Amino acid sequence: MISMKKLTLGYKKEKILHDVDLKIEKGEFIGIIGPSGAGKSTLLMAIVGGIKVFDGKFDVLGYNLKNIKKKDLSSLRKKIGIIFQGYYLVDRLSVLDNVVSGMLKEIPMARAIIKYYKDKELKKAKEFMEIVDIEKHSLKRCDELSGGQRQRVAIARALAGDPEVILADEPISALDPKSATKVMKVLKKVNKTYGVTVISNLHHLEYAKDYCDRIIGVNNGTVIFDGHSSELTEELVEKIYTTK
Ligand SMILES: Nc1ncnc2c1ncn2[C@@H]1O[C@H](COP(=O)(O)OP(=O)(O)O)[C@@H](O)[C@H]1O
Ligand SMILES: [Mg+2]
After folding, report:
1. How far is the CA of 16 from the centre of ligand 1 (A)?
2. Which helix H or strand E contains 40, and what residues bound it?
């Protein structure tokens, strides 16, 4: 569903990622690791067409990202859910309102504000709140929640958009270990239950090892590891986290 061949990505005139060759299949749970500044966020954001393609071949969900039209880009973005630290939830609205608003792609907040939901939407929202284990707080305002709870709302909200892929940029970096573990477990459950592909940048190697089926190691703009965590030797870890 995602294919990168000899891909060079970057900003304006600056090339950041070089010669990236990756194939990602439906249903994978991938962790991208590497030091700060390696290019992890650039790689992730390239998948939603947010990054300049200099060279190579790049297909995402059947769209050629090298010269994608605006209309196609907006169709592509509807199939991708994004979660990052400090994800923008509407604080003064309830958990439920935030989750339902994830379904309203054309008029994002309008109907959420007047709280006009169809039965079908409510049923779906309930299902997603249950899977992220936040339903008992469904009527609380989001500003009453902890960081981990907010991140779980963000996952439910992303799910409400019926995505084929969920991209998470360091979703647990600001959380305590217990909340971080819970968020990773929820992402895994979502991946297994719905077959949604999850690609997550993770600062902490241990979480990537524990939860991801496949790890991609990025260092200084190059993918230097792509495999199962069991193949990740101490030597490779050292190489991935080396900075100049
Ligand atoms: N908007 C931008 N414009 C120009 N350079 C950027 C931009 N965002 C990131 N970079 C540069 O791209 C490189 C990789 O950054 P990033 O993808 O954020 O790394 P990571 O997520 O691994 O920390 C860094 O050198 C950074 O300075
Ligand atoms: Mg980053």
Report:
1. 7
2. helix 40-46
